[in-house]
Amino acid sequence: MAVRYFGAKIKRNEDPTLLTGRALFTDDVDLPGMLHVAFLRSDYAHARIRSIDVSQALKRPGVVAVYTAEDLGDYWRPGPLLVPPPPVEGIVFNQRTQVPLAKDKVRFVGEPVVMVVAESRYIAEDALEDIFVDYEPLEPVVDIEKALEPGAPLVHEDVGSNVAAHVVQRKGDYEAAKAEADVVISRRFFYDHGLAAAMENRGYVAHWDPKAQFLTIWDTTQAPVVIRNGIAAMLGLSESQVRVIAPFIGGGFGPKIMMFYQEEVLIPWVAMQLNRPVKWIEDRRENFVATTQERYQIHKAEIALTKDGRILGVKDVFLHDTGAYDPYGLTVPINSQCTLLGPYDIPNYYSEFTAVFTNKTIVTPYRGAGRQHGVFVMERLLDIAAKELGIDRTEIRRKNFIPPDKFPYNNEIIYQDFAPLVYDSGNYEPALDKALELIGYEKFIKEEQPKLRAQGKHVGIGVVCYVEGTGIGPYEGARVRVEASGKVSVATGVGTQGQGHFTSFAQIVADQLGVDVRDVHIVTGDTAQFHWGTGTFASRGAVVAGSAIYEAAKKVREKALKLASEILEVAEEDLELVDGYVRVKGAPEAKISLGELAVRSNPLRGAVKPGTEPGLEATMYFGPERGATASGTHACIVEVDPETCMAKILKYVVVHDCGKVINPLIVEGQIHGGVAQGIGNAFYEQIVYNEDGQLLTASFMDYLIPTAMEVPPIVTDHVETPSPLNPLGTKGAGEAGAIPTAAAFVQAVEDALSDYNIEILEAPLSPNRLYELLHKK
Amino acid sequence: MTDLHTIRVTVNGTTYERTVEARMLLSDFIRHELGLTGTHVGCEHGVCGACTVLFDGQPVRSCLMFAVQADGHEIMTVEGLAPDPDHLHPLQEAFWEAHGLQCGFCTPGFLMTLKPFLEENPNPTEEEIRLAISGNLCRCTGYQHIIEAVKLAAEKMRK
Lengths: 777, 159
Description:
The structure holds two protein chains of two kinds. By secondary structure, chain A is α+β, with helices and mostly antiparallel strands. Chain A is built from 18 helices and 30 strands. In chain A, the strands form seven sheets. A seven-stranded mixed sheet of chain A has the order 3-6-1-13-10-11-12. A seven-stranded mixed sheet of chain A has the order 4-8-16-15-14-9-30, with helices on both faces. By secondary structure, chain B is α+β, with helices and mostly antiparallel strands. In chain B, about 35% of the residues lie in helices and about 15% in strands. Chains A and B meet through helix 1, helix 3 and helix 16 of A and helix 2, helix 3, helix 4 and helix 5 of B.
């Protein structure tokens, strides 16, 4: 084959469209006669609705309709449970899913209460001012520890407590291991993870064609097929009557796969009610309260070790804030529970968590999806243990790594995909070594740090290791088709939000079919193009959809070879696919183009052999047995000014193992972006609710997304341990940048401030918080 | 709200006459009245910079202005940077080559901020570049590839 695209740093196919402002995003959809929606949302975290008066709003010129929960009739019902709880013995799970519009009671600030439909968004928002809701404020549930105390107010009275779930998972016997230990370290950790804050807010446009009886929806979702199926079922339509298009999406990061958002359920319904196209686009203020978030956990964790630093066991009991409803099941806390074990050989583990309902925005996965919390706890425990035992922090990690000959490695607990948590492959020391070399660890601690300290500077280093469960099932599919033009079209069911699928998927196909990568046209996120799929989440696009595309392309290749062999009367083994042709090896003038083969495989007349399928086309599905485990090391050097408590990251290194890399440029971009979000999570971003459950950080003036001034240059490198679980050997790369960042940062800050002798057991930090920690003593 | 005004605005060289409400945002005017949807709206409170357009050659946040303020002025949006996807502006080429975009939502704002910046400062240092884009938020790239793209664009534009 002339060029091999797999593994090449090539420019993205989708970029010219995006760079020239011609890409279609959901808010760009403009239909004749389109109506606009605005939502009246709860100002209270917890209140009873006594009455709602919309009469004035209905009188406003330009207002077409106003709906409360009562007006929805049978369509009002709680949303489906998106992810059922995993089959863990003794599990408690109280399912309470969100409702389209609040009825009787509001449970978080921002919960939609009334929907206004008008000729313009301006008028719809004017009409919100006309509505009067009589609320009886109730005591809100804000603090997750107080929420579990007897007599606490209840988010859902019928549950009888604020317990959303309780899960215990065990490996070995922690208590027995503890009895043998030389050292036991026990601490209380607090880890908060915030908002995805994709630059594009959510939005939905729906168009009902009554003559064709067909509903088209443009949706900023990461999972268009699942949305199509769900909306069709809710509206009593057949799946073939509904087309969901997830066009270009301005960043997803998890919350755009939450299903089904209240607005997402209502917009198609109202388009059918009114027989007019309807649009709702979330504004940024709404995004802060109405789009799902992640939030904090409180861990009481314990590690038992031998005096030479071998881990005998870990115990962790934690509380997880799940917000007002739990439609996404237990994905986030299960990820925390499972990712805590990291790359370490931990023979005994006891982990117990309680997910708690609170009067806050719903919690669902955001890039990392609870993994950050687990990694932070484990890495901090190791830092403290290293200090206590007088072992270098990198040595204690190295000593406990799962050795490369122990894979597949069974952690004996259940992961978010309901499969046992078994790591497929890994080799952790080379990544650590490479990271130490790139950050200059030895030189830093032996020469630079003492020198800088002598100058009165507070500089510190952080080195942390992590694993990331990626590429989970159940499956994805793809259809690959050679057109008569010789160009190739590919359709898959996943959505895309900037990950470069139009390119990385094209690379896979171009290699199989011997065509130019620019001649491979990928369609993602359109249910009219592909019927089956689950979505883009858990760093699985390249792994699962990529593998399906590979299998389909391989099958098309076989078809092309078979047909060419008949036409050219040459054995298949003697043929090759190059530059859009099937040609005879060693006699390249004897050839037939793929376009010609596509035409010949779709004859208009004449007899074909029984069993023949028309076209150079194949559809294949891929479902991995379980997820592939990516891993790596992050290291950073931070300087802290103890007066102002500002911290500056001087150097940041990521060495990452995501198996085989399809496009290193794209993976590098994923890592950079992840680290930037991780830095936000470490020092800048925090969702702050006050005691009334009011969000105090509901704008970009208060919720600080890192800018180019805060994100340092990031040095990246790779090691490659292919996954045996898929034909490409890939592992996911989407979340790795974001997961261990706060753990690395906090370790470095603590190291920088070693003369203050503080122990930092929480993230995010901020200059204010750091000041408090320094001066509490 | 019947406070209507007729305005004439030149956008990417074409003059448009429209009657708008006094309160209509310039960003909404560009996107929904003129159908130039390359300009994106990310926050509507002037922080994210996605809606940046050139107003008489200077970068402004179109979400913080009213359409009526553009009466008699010249606007340039991302659609005005290149005639079509096959003939990119050097800045766009550089973003393509250096992988300076992922989801691409914030990109038009970056491009419109950078065009006048590079025209004024054809050989910027990395610090100057970081400062220049510090009013534009990107949630995907971590900025590193954007900064590399700006360096590359400066090189291309100097030639």
